[in-house]
Amino acid sequence: MHIYIRFWILLVVWLSGSMTLSSQTIETITEDGAWCWFSDPRAIYAGDEENRQVVTGWVTKTGDVEAASIELSTGDISNKIIYPELQIDDHNNPAFLELPDHNILTMFTWHGGKNGVIQSTTTEPGNINTFGQPIVFKPKTKELLDKYKRETYTYANPFRLQKESNKIYAFGRWIGYKPNLITSTDDGKTWSDPQVVITSPELDTNNRPYVKYYSDGGSRIHLVFTDGHPRVEPLNSVYYCYYENGAFWRANGEKICTIEQLPFHPTDATVVYQATEEKGRSWIFDIAADDKGYPIIAYSRYPRLKVHDYYYARFDGSQWHDHKIIYSGPWFPEDVPDVTQREVNYSAGLTLDSVDPSVVYFSHVIDGVFEISRGETPDFGKNWGITPVTRHSEYDNVRPFVPRYQQPGDKKMVLWMQNRSYIHYTIYDSSIKYMVFP
């Protein structure tokens, strides 16, 4: 009885708070920018105690890769092109990592091809205008290419583990069309040889597991991943593992393998969601951890062609609790007459607040337009209180993201794409919006 009373009290609080959220000002970082959702963190909190900012980045419709910073105390915005005319493709957005001296490392790639991985580092702490000349490198070895056959570079995901003397772990879809891993012990000046992390049991160079990563920067990196692309894999399922202390582990703490024993297969990890034809194939959107270090995962299911459902899965130390959040709508790319839609699994997106993963931000259809909402659950996903972030919009609002590495005292913020037009990941006219909450 007390649980239900508490739930309804919280619901009243959420409903009364909806006026507060929707009354906040929507700000624009750039009128020309787009991003995908597999190069992350695409936004981070950074800076010393006195000078806090959010650093983020995107790809313009002409293919420039840009970085930006938002000063939290003043709201001032700085923008800098860090690689002009790289490629017109939203997969190429930069990911960011703050180094121990408060300089910022950024990493990004072209979408496919053999060009390699790109990185740049600021020369003044926190000053994105001091990003240096981009460095291009190709994480590969002859031995790895001989074994995994395919050389192609897409995505970058850098993380720093303080409990490993600030060693950097960077992941991407590289050799073999598979998730790869490289490490650096000198702030990205030099890198180890790559290793394939996840592969199909029998090598298939057309198979590509998709991975989302999360770390609080301490000792652990969480991975949630799929068999492959839902357009290709009819039973695309969701799996979880984490890296810690030189090895990869299942959710229950059983060891999968050491780094030296990589790669492993998807089914070697923990199954979060086993797809069936009835329940639908899936794709992943975000991962975070609760205060006990247990994973929380946000993902989508596609039980029918135009039905995209958002789900919230939480591990409690012994089992998964998996609950539907909401129906989000169909795909968000525009349909062109007499042209088959190529990206029927492009959900509008959802993201976890990594500081408080009982909170999600998601994009869903309201009155024919994709809008952003905030959801909060008092009971680990069973019930949701929903408050609006955007409403009555002229254009679709998609792919929200909450910046990582928030510290006490930092203003809460959510960012997202707003599309004047989005036909394909190479044909878009988008802006990046954000809202700061009290």
Automatic annotation (TrEMBL):
Classification via Pfam families: BNR_4
InterPro entries linked: Sialidase_sf
Highest taxon of source: Bacteria
SUPFAM superfamilies cross-referenced by the UniProt entry: Sialidases (SSF50939)
Protein name, as recorded: BNR repeat-containing protein
Species of the source: Membranihabitans marinus
Lineage: Bacteria, Pseudomonadati, Bacteroidota, Saprospiria, Saprospirales
